[in-house]
Specification:
single chain, 331 residues, alpha+beta, 2 domains, 36% strand, DUF4138 domain-containing protein
């Protein structure tokens, strides 16, 4: 009878003990889970969980000036840098004077030299960009024990990986632009060459050689030839600068004089300006000893030998206006 009572009490005690162990296990598991969640909780979680707007707000660093942090160290002391994420790469400018150890999101920095005048830089590459830190060896009372870069502070520099992404896209676009520009440049040179060949063919049609010159102050104006296709006329000319000074072409004019001479009743109102179709140099500067060869295109219904055509070029050199005029081109 006593043995039966003892066994019943033993089994009850054992059941209570197992139940107590079970609740204790649940309690320990709950504490561990809560601790792990607190340990894992940080403001710099995976970016995939945030919207574009939140990315700009969350990932910030307290920048003092010029996007550079300063970390004061001293011989015999260890300083810690806490980062917003695990670094991709870490480099020290003077590796013989400092030692670094990376543990997760933290970097342990310790000076290993007795020279207290050593200053160097620490470059930390993260997925958000590059972090620059100035390392200095100072007295122990000035040591920075923990440089925390995970603080979320308003109105400070935003170190945002989106900026790096934009720069990457910008680089790709620049490469595409350069490729397209080089292609257009090549096509432009081809068109320019073809245009020159076509112009040479045009100038060879119904061509009249003129070869009239005028020289003033070291500047020579030459009318080379006049060609015609239908109602379009092509007047080829050349300007030569034989001086060591640069000059400006202010304007170029072409006139048709329909008035008679002085003895037959000269009429000044008979001078009419001929409209030049193609663009001409205007206030354009040329270097010394420059030879300019160009073509004037104009349109006339009737033009024949004996018509008094006047060609005028206004040039500015040494601050003075020089007018180079050639009259009676077709006479």
């Amino acid at each position: 009878m006593k043995n039966k009572i003892f066994k019943d009490n033993y089994y009850k005690f054992l059941s209570s003990l197992l139940l107590l162990y079970f609740y204790l296990f649940l309690l320990v598991s709950l504490v561990v889970c809560i601790y792990c969640k607190i340990a894992d909780a940080q403001p710099y979680s995976n970016l995939a969980k945030y919207s574009f707007k939140n990315r700009l707000y969350i990932h910030r660093l307290p920048i003092k000036s010029n996007i550079i942090y300063k970390l004061n160290t001293a011989l015999g002391y260890v300083s810690i840098i806490t980062l917003p994420c695990i670094p991709l790469n870490v480099a020290i400018g003077s590796a013989s004077d400092f030692s670094e150890q990376i543990v997760g999101r933290q970097i342990f920095i310790k000076p290993i030299t007795y020279n207290n005048k050593i200053n160097t830089n620490l470059e930390i590459l993260t997925k958000y960009g590059l972090i620059n830190i100035l390392l200095k060896i100072t007295k122990p009372k000035y040591v920075t024990y923990n440089l925390n870069l995970t603080q979320r502070i308003n109105n400070v520099f935003i170190l945002n990986y989106i900026k790096a992404k934009i720069n990457k896209e910008k680089k790709i676009l620049n490469q595409k632009y350069d490729k397209k520009f080089n292609l257009l440049k090549k096509e432009r040179l081809t068109i320019k060459k073809q245009k020159k060949e076509i112009m040479n063919l045009v100038l060879a049609v119904n061509r009249i050689k003129i070869n009239k010159k005028i020289r003033k102050k070291g500047l020579v104006l030459t009318i080379i030839s006049l060609s015609r296709i239908g109602k379009l006329f092509y007047l080829q000319y050349q300007i030569t600068n034989t001086t060591n000074s640069s000059f400006f072409i202010r304007n170029i004019y072409l006139y048709l004089e329909t008035g008679e001479d002085l003895f037959n009743g000269y009429n000044p109102a008979g001078i009419r300006e001929i409209n030049i179709i193609n663009s001409m140099p205007h206030n354009k500067r040329y270097m010394p000893y420059k030879i300019i060869r160009n073509v004037i295109i104009f349109k006339r219904n009737k033009l024949k030998q004996g018509n008094n055509i006047k060609f005028s070029v206004h040039i500015l050199i040494h601050g003075k206006l020089i007018k180079l005029n050639i009259s009676n081109i077709l006479k």
